C-alpha cells in the first residue's frame, strides 16, 4: 500500500467517505498528497470537485471537461 492509499483509508475512517478525486491533480501528486494530509488532519473532506469554479463544475457535470 502506498502513501495515497494510506491517506484514502485514513480519510474514509475519519469522514466515512472516500476522498472525492476527479483527476484534477493527476499531474501534481505531491499537491494531492499535501491536500489529503490537510484533510485528514483538519475538519473538511478532500473534494476536488469543490476546487472547481461554479462554471467549471457545470462543464464537468455536462462532461465537457475531464481531467
Explain the overall architecture.
- With 67 residues, the protein is an all-alpha fold.
- Helices cover 51% and strands 0% of the residues.
- It contains 3 helices and no strands.
- The two termini are 24 Å apart.
Secondary structure elements and pairings:
Elements lengths: L2 H13 L13 H13 L12 H8 L6
Short description:
This protein is mainly α and 67 residues long. The chain has 3 helices and no strands.
Sheet-strand content, in percent, reads: under 5%
Cα-to-Cα separation, first versus last residue: 24 Å
The radius of gyration over CA amounts to 12 Å
Morphology: globular
Task: Please provide the count of β strands.
Answer: 0
Features:
67 residues; mainly alpha
